[in-house]
């Protein structure tokens, strides 16, 4: 497609989504929930056509020599379908965020001023590989009263097209405009460039994928972007701590799963407790094959741990998201030093303090500048489902609008409502 | 200054602001309020040195042949000083937004999840002419626990420098870091380019000034921008309406002041009520010298009004912010048509419906996609002070983060707090 044709195609998709977004904004809760339940039914009944589309993507990926884990991420097996269908039903069962009016206060002028939660309008979702994101994004769009424009990875294009048709049918079933969920059918990379430069088409872009993709989109976008960059999460073990709790939580934060963004990547330990705590956690890490990148002081305390893989940490380690069985470890002299280290080297994603000292807990909560701050809990809890959001469209490392897990609320905004009886300004 | 030197200067200012922002984030409410009261005292006692600095700017502006209203906007007379000093005391008397914890809920896992209001960090404020903005921005920064970097207009540089010294002294008086409020001392235009491309220095940019300035900043910024573009505000007079109320509110929305962004620029009238309403409001506008740019149907109804200045509206009129004694007028057949017109031609700033019909009021509130939506009240109420925000740093026409008047809350964000007792993810 020529660049002009591509630009026209994106503009056409944008106009259709924008028009549908007005209908979605005023759609009844009943219609939106019916669309979600219809989508769940249609997913479960999709059978052969969906499987065939998915098989095409998998065959192409295998022919292109994609690594096995990458191919696996494309697979829409029975279990994946069951999970996304259940997700649609869960979202249907949640309260509708749209239309909620809060904080109405009477002002001296006589007017009442409050806020109403409303959809953002149209969001653009740019994602890689996993085709189930197509359904997750569409279902959150439907419930939040938004339209959306989806752009999945080219390796999943046939699966995404098949899933998209189910979404459009489900919208139609419920009397809602099928145009509310758009999918960019061309796999031409330049389409993304047009989309992120079209404020008339999209109100916000949500990229999900590698850091390179997100940085490029943030750099080139002419519309707001809800970004998810690194998850360089810290666990800080304070001086006054329950050692058994610290051991259990630190272990979980690092080793329960290595690949999620909310897994711990760095362990800070107060000097006062380090001689007792470090050899114990070191033994746990050694047993699980977790490599420890240590400052000199922590290395000295870990030297006696049988089987420990100890490496001298470099400055770069403090800022690294490993997403692997590797953790950086450093002793600190004080809570102040821990907070300063996290604010300097962290990625403002999720950080936890393990402590029994109330003032330390409160200062950590207040002063660590991260989307999620935790006391005596595993960083692995930073997740839309665990937080009660029902589902998440992404995890934001931005400070404005939405921080941390972004659910239905993050896809809405608050406008001001003023209720008067003919008041005028004097 | 060479571009390299300028870049280094902005980086230095940014580092100082960033360091101070951490101290401001943990500053006590008492210290912040004391700084604000000290600033009020210092403003009232500023006397000759401030007057001399201001006189230099005014002399330079007059020598440069600036128009009289532009020169007037530079003037720091006794009344302006009294107003900004009082503003500081009002902000001191407001509740501290920082540290507030809300919505804490117990989750099935055992953790409690809530949200804490925290400062954004460092905001950059880019503004033109009026030097009092220096104090307004500094006082909102202090109370919200942020640091800020100010960049005023070159025509007010001496006044701004003098005011800035008072701010720094007031911060020092209260034991807070004077570096928390930075002012870019060079009037080199390229400094703005460096500032808005420095995410490490500023978390958000708030431009205040002409549309050209704001569009340029939004286009070139590499950090988030809280934008205030047009205020093309509508009054829609519904079919079922109290005519006396409609007359009073429409008059006030258009004529109480012509220059503010919340003044009405367009009047939509339901066809059923137009024959009774239009001649009456037309007579008011005629008496006040307000030019009416009409569609054919409204022009026909206004033709008999003595002294009415009637002009045929062009398509461009529906999207124009006049900021002058001019209003566009159009008849509509239905509420739907009114809402569609506003969403298409408006600027998503402030729009009002005048009606006695409850379903119309509710649909207007819900479906008009603007930062402020009003029922039976003048659009002129869209203002931080009238909404109870105490003061406003600007009015946002964005959808994300902050919509409409932005006060202390818009300078903060909500982070997630998780309170556990050793819970782990399973």
UniProtKB/TrEMBL annotation, chains A, B:
Asked whether the keyword Nucleotidyltransferase is assigned, the reply is no
PROSITE patterns xrefs:
PROA
Pfam families given in the database record: Aldedh
GO MF entries:
glutamate-5-semialdehyde dehydrogenase activity; NADP binding
Per its record, the protein catalyses: L-glutamate 5-semialdehyde + phosphate + NADP(+) = L-glutamyl 5-phosphate + NADPH + H(+)
Gene Ontology process terms (BP): L-proline biosynthetic process
Q: Which residues form the Aldehyde dehydrogenase domain?
A: 9-285, 318-383
Q: What is its main location?
A: cytoplasm
Q: Which residues form a coiled coil?
A: none
Spell out the subcellular localization from the entry.
Answer: Cytoplasm
Enzyme Commission numbers on file: 1.2.1.41
Q: Output a single Gene Ontology CC term carried by this record.
A: cytoplasm
Entry-linked Gene3D superfamilies: Aldehyde Dehydrogenase, Chain A, domain 1 (3.40.605.10), Aldehyde Dehydrogenase, Chain A, domain 2 (3.40.309.10)
Keywords from UniProt, A to Z, are: Amino-acid biosynthesis, Cytoplasm, NADP, Oxidoreductase, Proline biosynthesis
**Matching InterPro entries, A to Z?**
Ald_DH/histidinol_DH, Ald_DH_C, Ald_DH_N, Aldehyde_DH_dom, G-glutamylP_reductase_CS, Glu-5-SA_DH, GPR_dom
Biological role stated in the UniProt entry = Catalyzes the NADPH-dependent reduction of L-glutamate 5-phosphate into L-glutamate 5-semialdehyde and phosphate. The product spontaneously undergoes cyclization to form 1-pyrroline-5-carboxylate.
Its family?
A: Belongs to the gamma-glutamyl phosphate reductase family.
Instruction: Enumerate the PANTHER family for this protein.
Output: DELTA-1-PYRROLINE-5-CARBOXYLATE SYNTHASE, GLUTAMATE SEMIALDEHYDE DEHYDROGENASE
Q: What is this protein called?
A: Gamma-glutamyl phosphate reductase
* Gene expressing this chain: proA
């Amino acid at each position: 497609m020529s660049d002009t044709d591509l630009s026209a195609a994106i503009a056409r998709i944008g106009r259709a989504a924008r028009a549908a977004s007005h209908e979605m904004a005023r759609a009844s809760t009943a219609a939106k929930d019916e669309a979600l339940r219809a989508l769940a039914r249609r997913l479960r009944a999709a059978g052969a056509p969906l499987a065939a589309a998915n098989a095409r993507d998998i065959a192409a990926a295998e022919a292109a020599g994609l690594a096995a884990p990458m191919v696996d991420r494309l697979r829409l097996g029975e279990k994946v379908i069951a999970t996304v269908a259940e997700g649609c039903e869960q979202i249907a069962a949640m309260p509708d965020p749209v239309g909620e009016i809060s904080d109405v206060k009477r002002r001296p002028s006589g007017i009442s001023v409050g806020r109403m939660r409303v959809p953002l309008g149209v969001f653009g979702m740019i994602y890689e590989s996993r085709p189930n994101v197509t359904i997750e994004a569409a279902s959150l769009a439907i419930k939040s009263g938004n339209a959306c424009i989806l752009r999945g990875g080219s390796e999943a294009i046939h699966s995404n097209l098949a899933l998209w048709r189910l979404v459009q049918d489900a919208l139609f079933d419920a009397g809602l405009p099928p145009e509310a969920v758009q999918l960019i059918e061309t796999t031409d990379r330049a389409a993304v460039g047009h989309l992120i430069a079209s404020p008339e088409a999209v109100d916000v872009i949500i990229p999900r994928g590698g850091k390179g993709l997100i940085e490029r989109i943030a750099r080139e976008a002419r519309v707001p972007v809800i970004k998810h960059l690194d998850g360089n999460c810290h666990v800080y073990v304070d001086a006054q701590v329950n050692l058994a709790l610290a051991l259990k939580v630190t272990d979980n934060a690092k080793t329960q799963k290595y690949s999620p963004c909310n897994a711990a990547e760095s362990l800070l330990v107060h000097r006062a407790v380090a001689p007792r705590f470090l050899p114990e956690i070191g033994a746990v890490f050694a047993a699980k094959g977790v490599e420890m990148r240590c400052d000199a002081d922590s290395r000295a305390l870990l030297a006696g741990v049988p089987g420990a893989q100890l490496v001298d940490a470099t400055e770069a380690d403090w800022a690294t998201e490993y997403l692997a069985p590797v953790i950086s470890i450093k002793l600190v002299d004080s809570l102040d030093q821990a907070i300063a280290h996290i604010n300097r080297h962290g990625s403002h994603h999720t950080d936890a303090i393990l402590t029994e000292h109330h003032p330390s807990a409160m200062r950590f909560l207040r002063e660590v500048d991260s989307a999620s701050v935790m006391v005596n809990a595993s960083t692995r809890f930073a997740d839309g489902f665990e937080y009660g959001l029902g589902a998440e469209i992404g995890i934001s490392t931005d400070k404005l609008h939405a921080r941390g897990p972004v659910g239905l609320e993050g896809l809405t905004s608050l406008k001001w409502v003023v209720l008067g009886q003919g008041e005028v300004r004097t």
